[in-house]
Amino acid sequence: MHEMALAEGVLQIVEDAAGAQGFARAKIVVLEIGQLSAVEPEAMRFCFDAVARGTLAEGAQLEVIAVPGEGVCLNCHKTVPLAALYDPCPACGGYPVQATGGTEMRVKELEVE
Amino acid sequence: MCTTCGCAAGETRIEGEAVDAGDGHWHVHADGTAHSHAPAHPPAGGLRYAPRGAAHGHAHRHADGSVHTHDAAGAAADAGALHYGHGPAGAHAPGMTQARMVQIERDILSKNDGYADANRKRFAEQGIFALNLVSSPGSGKTTLLCRSIEALRERLPIAVVEGDQQTSYDAERIRATGVPALQINTGKGCHLDAHMVGQALRKLAPADDSLLFIENVGNLVCPAAFDLGEAHKVAILSVTEGEDKPLKYPDMFRAATLMLINKVDLLPYVAFDVERAVAHARRVNPALQVIRVSATSGEGFGEWTAWLENGLAAQRAQKQETVAALRRRIAELEALLAGAAR
Predict the structure, then answer these.
(1) Architecture of domain B122-319 in CATH?
(2) What pLDDT is stored for residue B158 in this prediction?
(3) How do B34-37 and B67-70 pair as beta strands?
(4) Torsion sign, CA atoms A84, A71, B221, B271
(5) pLDDT tens, residue by residue, B158-211
(6) How many domains is chain A partitioned into structurally?
(7) B75 confidence band (pLDDT: 50, 70, 90)
(8) R_g over Cα of chain A
């Protein structure tokens, strides 16, 4: 999957931050990954370990904060939790539910030294 | 390299030539030294930042304030990676560093999105209507493109960017229709990204007010996440595939504006329920537009080419509006200047 390219994106963000903030090592990288985003956290961990080798983030721990999915049901107009893009509305059982949250893929913060 | 699909950096080719990283890059060593250099070191096993074989020296500052330079050879090298923090070059007094938290709050795709914004700006300035065509392999994208080009090329300028892992067969097929086409080979990569497309645009130089098709790598997963700067993603689903694909690969159908159901001439011979496929797709994307087409019989092409022409007309009108706004602003500024000179 595309997690390799995304892991390289994470590493670039860490390296940009190292240039701007002057740190030598990233020990923990905290990501926010939405439940409805295009990222599989386990694949992300695997790829990040691979791309971080030989960099200032080598061996860094990747912490993933899962952001729950949320949508607006176009049937009953309620804002409801949504586990998958194709799920029915948990309130009324109808379709479709337009995803409104939980689609993010962000680097939230770093523990550095 | 990714074990799922094998995608990795450093293997992209445009018309057989290696893609120039352009501005070089900078990186940070484990001892905190940050520097930039031209993209001279070869990709080590496809991992862009593993500096195996890098022969650049650098300067750094120790905790006691002394600064010195040395070359990378001083760092311990093992198979595959240099550990700058382990050898004498990177020795730092223990206790001199302090762990701290740094807030980042940046989208993982921010770099790709930056390139996509630049592409989108170029499309807006030139009045180009750009479409990103995405589907599984074998849905008939290239045949559909060839027929669309045949139908439209007398009326509008058209250019095509083709993405495939290997070969330039598709670009050759498009060129045979008489329009300019450029092949990007992603090597092991599973999708086009905005940087590749930006580079292709520089070579292809599509005309002002033209229609630009970007045919992505046949893959219903990875291209969904990467904005190329296009006006719309167009997902193509053929009736020889499963009607449940929009549920199996929801990200792609959510990212698309239009779904083309292709090969409808084969409907009498297959058990594909168009209504079910559309219902499935609209479950993940309620606003999805749908057009049924056959690149073989030409069915539905009136609707599809009208959709293309309307999109291009809107993009051209937007450019004209911007040009008109700029002219107005120039006139205002000239009036101001004339007033000031008096």
Answers:
(1) 3-Layer(aba) Sandwich (3.40)
(2) 98
(3) unpaired
(4) positive
(5) 999 999 999 999 999 999 999 999 999 998 889 999 999 999 999 999 999 999
(6) 1
(7) very low
(8) 17
Contact A107 B224 (CB under 8 A): no
Q: Tell which B residues from 208 to 237 touch A, by Cβ distance under 8 Å.
A: 221-222, 224-226
pLDDT at B100: 87
* B311/chain A closest Cα distance in angstroms: 25
Which residue type is seen at B106?
R
Specify the length of chain B in residues. Answer: 342
Task: Give Dmax (Cα) for chain B.
Answer: 80
Q: What is the pLDDT of residues B242-263, one digit of tens each?
A: 999 999 999 999 999 999 999 9
The encoded tokens of residue B288 equal 């999805």
Beta carbons of A104 and B107 less than 8 Å apart:
yes
- Residue A91, min C-alpha distance to chain B (Å): 16
Phi-psi region of B162 (alpha: psi -120 to 50; beta: other; left: phi over 0): beta
Q: Which amino acid is at B286?
A: P
Would you list the DSSP string of B275-304?
A: HHHHHHHHHH-TT-EEEE--TTT-TTHHHH
Give the residue carrying structure tokens 């926010």.
Answer: A32
The continuous run of DSSP H or E covering A81 comes out as strand A79-81
Distance CA A6, CA B111 (A): 10
Tokens of A10: 């994470």
Q: B108 at the A interface (CB within 8 A)?
A: yes
Q: Whole domain around residue A35: which residue ranges? A: 3-112
Mutate to test the interface with A, among B97, B101, B104, B226 (most CBs of A within 10 A): B104
This model of the complex carries an ipTM of 0.85
Residues 20-59 of B with CB under 8 A from A: 26-32, 34, 47-52
- Tell me whether residues B50 and A22 touch, CB distance under 8 A: no
CATH of the domain at A30: 3.30.2320.80
Taken as a whole, chain A contains a residue count of 113
Which stretches of chain B are DSSP H helices?
110-126, 141-152, 169-175, 194-204, 245-248, 250-255, 274-284, 301-341
**The two structure tokens encoding residue A24:** 């030598």
- List, as ranges, residues 49-108 from A with C-beta within 8 Å of B: 50-51, 53-56, 58, 74, 84-86, 95-96, 98-99, 104-108
